[in-house]
Structures are given as structure tokens and as C-alpha cells.
From TrEMBL:
EC number assigned by the record: 5.6.2.3
Cofactors required: Mg(2+)
Origin superkingdom: Eukaryota
Keywords assigned by UniProt, alphabetized: ATP-binding, DNA damage, DNA recombination, DNA repair, Helicase, Hydrolase, Nucleotide-binding
Lineage: Eukaryota, Viridiplantae, Streptophyta, Embryophyta, Tracheophyta
Positions of the DNA helicase Pif1-like DEAD-box helicase domain: 2-126
Record family assignment: Belongs to the helicase family.
Protein name as catalogued: ATP-dependent DNA helicase
DNA helicase Pif1-like 2B domain location: 226-272
Catalytic activity: ATP + H2O = ADP + phosphate + H(+)
InterPro entries given in the database record: DNA_helicase_pif1-like_DEAD (IPR010285), P-loop_NTPase (IPR027417), Pif1-like_2B_dom (IPR049163)
Length: 391
């Protein structure tokens, strides 16, 4: 068997420190079995490469307050003092160099502005009753003027000529609408789904209560299937999943990472079968591959209900629009940032602004503020204390 030499863990800042601590203990245990000195070494002497940007989304702690989030990060773990930090200095996504080596000033300014947003150093104002100034001015060039039908406006801006180009893979692949909340994502996807031509097929899930999660024996009476079908959880497909051929979808689980089918991979549906969805991969390392997706059992892990729901369904969701959190790792040529409500957690504005490969491809639609002092302003939340011990 080949020996593992290196473990690479991407997006480390959004993983709770306990996961790394568990990995540390496990590796010490396994590798120390034959060589006892490895028990004394960090990660059992294995090299672990953590990648990530603390300006981006931090661990999600349900109902957690700011200190809970900051304390859950890897740089608040005992392990951190054993880490060497290497800093990347050049943005490869928005390449500010012309082929002849000269600098494109517009792109350089954009990169610096996005970094300042991420570092929380763009001048900000506070509204009445707020402790911390967090409202920043968005440059005029990115603004879409708000209209009576904001969804129509953001769709028209991000997906121009959608009726003619709705089947064009390149067109679909290079753009997305980003927004902070799942209900806005669903509203935009439903609006665009109706515009997509072709027959809609609805796949209903099989739902049940996970028996190990509750002591109640009479589950069928307390939680009938009809009730379970009405429940929706973020990151879980709905009971009634409506799909059409040529709809862009996103995977909600790691289905088969070696084949490029990871949580967040975008695909386009090529055929809707009875037991499989045929799809073509649009993003990641296996672009262009034709794959089959089958139903899997997903469970609700953070639920307000006193039970865990088991849902057997295709782990996919339409992705004309996606949440900002889900867009992390994506690179897009055109981004429509829809902010009917401002962002609500650290790094979300930075992640949204830094998805785009060219400043010309970024458009932002915000709800118009009644107070003229806050015209074209939106909230930028940065937990600066997270950066304290990075270098
Ligand atoms: N060495 C390189 N040469 C050319 N392009 C590159 C290089 N490295 C990265 N890129 C391009 O830059 C973009 C961002 O790369 P990548 O997704 O690896 O960055 P990242 O730091 O993980 O991004 P993020 O964490 O913000 O999602 C991609 O479009 C990628 O193709």
C-alpha cells in the first residue's frame, strides 16, 4: 500500500478547529502504532497543508455569537502555534498584468478595493443604535438602480438574452446570481425555471424520521410523512424537486470526489431518467464529463425539530442563483450580487465581490435606503480579531 506523504485541507478557516484536533489525535494514534515517537509529533509527523483565507467565511455555528465563531477557528487552536504561515501575494482570478507585463490600473484598483473590504479597512458608517460602523459605499460603476421588480432587474443584468441563450453551456457556466439568503435564492431560481423551455419533471423524495434520533415510538402518528414532506433545511434538497433538461444544477453533497462530483460542483442536466439524472460537469477538475447522479439519503444535521429527518432524493438544486456561502471556491466572469437584505456574517461581502474574474462583470442590486446619507451603502461585516495572530 502506498504511504500518504501529505494531507491537503482547503478552505481551512471555515472548518471548526475540533476537526483538525481530531485529525491530529487520530494520526498520532495510527502512525504511533509502529513508531511510538510519532505520538509526540504534531499530526503524527505528517505534513498537513492548510489552504484558505481568513477574510472569507468562518465556521458556521448555529445560533453562535461573534466570540463563538472566532473561538472555533483553527488559529484559536493549540495546533496553530505549530503552523508556518505562507502568504499569497498575487490575485490570479483578476489578473492585473497585461501579457507584456504592464499593469492594468483598473484591475489593480479593483483588487485593492476588494482586499480592503476583506480586511475591513474601507471607511464605514454606523446607523443609529449600531455599535460598530459597518456600512460601506459601493462604487457607482457596480450599481444596478433598484426597480419595482428587483428580481427581473438582477436577472436581466446577469443573464442578458436568456430566452435565446438558455441552452448555451458556456453562457451558463460563466455567470451566477449571488445573494445572502436561501429564500431569495429559491425565489430567483423559481423565476428563471419558469422561463426555461421544456417539460418539467417532479421527483418526490421518500422522507422518514431517523429512528435512532428520537425516543418516541409512535413517530408515524406524531410526524406523519405528509408533515415531513413540508420541511425544508438548508443544504438539503426539497421533497418535490422540479427539474428540466438543460437546467444548471449544483451538487449538495460529495457524491464521488474522484470523479469530480463534490459538494458545490455545477452541472447541466442532459437527460431526466426514472432512476438517474444524466448530467454534464460544468466546473472543477472534470469539466465536460458526462455523469449519472442517483438518489442518496441526506439527513438534517442542524434542525429545530426534536428528530433527524432522513430524505432520499437527488442531492441537487437549480443554481442560476446560489447563496454567497455556496459560491465560495467558484470563479465567474459575470456576477449579479443581489442584496435585498445586507450580508449577515463575516466575510460574505468579500467572498461575493471576489468571485468575479473581471471588475466589468460585477453588478450589484441593493434595496434603496430611505436615508440619503446611506445611498449605495451596504453592510460589510469583518471580525478583525480573527486576523490578530495570523503572521
Ligand atoms: N498559477 C495560476 N495560473 C493561472 N491561473 C491561475 C493560477 N492559479 C489559480 N489560477 C486561476 O485563478 C482562479 C482562482 O484560483 P483558485 O480557485 O485556486 O483560488 P482560491 O484561492 O482557492 O480561491 P477562493 O478561495 O477565493 O475561492 C481560478 O480561475 C484559477 O484558474
Amino acid at each position: 500500500m502506498q504511504e500518504v506523504q501529505l494531507i491537503i485541507w482547503d478552505e481551512a478557516p471555515m472548518t471548526q478547529k475540533y476537526a483538525f484536533e481530531a485529525l491530529d489525535k487520530t494520526l498520532r494514534d495510527i502512525l504511533g502504532f509502529q513508531k511510538p515517537e510519532k505520538r509526540e509529533q504534531i499530526f503524527g509527523g505528517m505534513t498537513v497543508l492548510l489552504g484558505g483565507d481568513f477574510r472569507q467565511i468562518l465556521p458556521v455555528i448555529p445560533k453562535g455569537k461573534r466570540p463563538d465563531v472566532v473561538q472555533a477557528c483553527i488559529n484559536r487552536s493549540e495546533l496553530w502555534k505549530h503552523c508556518n504561515v505562507f502568504t499569497l501575494t498575487r490575485s490570479m482570478r483578476v489578473n492585473e498584468y497585461y501579457p507584456n507585463g504592464e499593469i492594468d490600473n483598473q484591475k489593480q484598483d479593483f483588487n485593492q478595493w476588494v482586499l480592503s473590504v476583506g480586511n475591513g479597512i474601507v471607511p464605514a458608517k454606523a446607523k443609529d443604535g449600531e455599535d460598530e460602523p459597518s456600512w460601506i459605499q459601493i462604487p457607482e460603476q457596480f450599481i444596478i438602480n433598484s426597480s419595482d421588480s428587483p428580481i427581473e432587474a438582477i436577472v436581466a443584468e446577469t443573464y442578458p438574452n436568456f430566452i435565446e441563450r438558455q441552452h448555451d453551456e458556456e453562457y451558463l457556466k460563466e455567470r451566477a446570481i449571488l445573494t445572502p439568503r436561501n429564500d431569495d435564492v429559491d425565489e430567483i431560481n423559481t423565476y428563471m425555471f419558469k422561463k426555461l423551455t421544456g417539460k418539467s419533471v417532479t421527483y418526490n423524495s421518500a422522507d422518514e424520521v431517523c429512528k435512532a434520533s428520537t425516543e418516541c415510538l409512535d413517530q408515524q402518528q406524531l410526524y406523519p410523512t405528509e408533515f415531513l414532506n413540508t420541511l425544508n433545511f438548508s443544504g438539503m434538497p426539497p421533497h418535490a424537486l422540479c427539474l428540466k433538461k438543460e437546467l444548471p444544477i449544483m451538487l449538495l453533497r460529495n457524491v464521488n470526489p474522484t470523479k469530480g462530483l463534490c459538494n458545490g460542483t455545477r452541472l447541466i442536466i442532459t437527460e431526466l431518467g426514472e432512476f438517474f439524472i444524466h448530467a454534464k460537469i460544468l466546473t472543477g477538475s472534470h469539466v465536460g464529463d458526462n455523469v449519472l447522479i442517483h438518489r442518496i439519503i441526506t439527513t438534517s444535521n442542524q434542525s429545530k425539530w426534536p428528530f433527524v429527518l432522513k430524505r432520499r432524493q437527488y442531492p441537487v438544486k437549480p443554481c442560476y442563483a446560489m447563496t454567497i456561502n455556496k459560491s465560495q471556491r467558484q470563479s465567474l466572469n459575470y456576477v449579479g450580487l443581489y442584496l435585498p437584505n445586507p450580508v449577515f456574517s463575516h466575510g460574505q461581502l468579500y467572498v461575493a465581490l471576489s468571485r468575479v474574474t473581471n471588475p466589468a462583470g460585477l453588478k450589484i442590486l441593493m434595496t434603496e435606503e430611505a436615508d440619503p446619507e446611506f445611498k449605495n451603502c451596504t453592510r460589510n461585516i469583518v471580525y478583525k480579531e480573527t486576523f490578530n495572530n495570523l503572521l
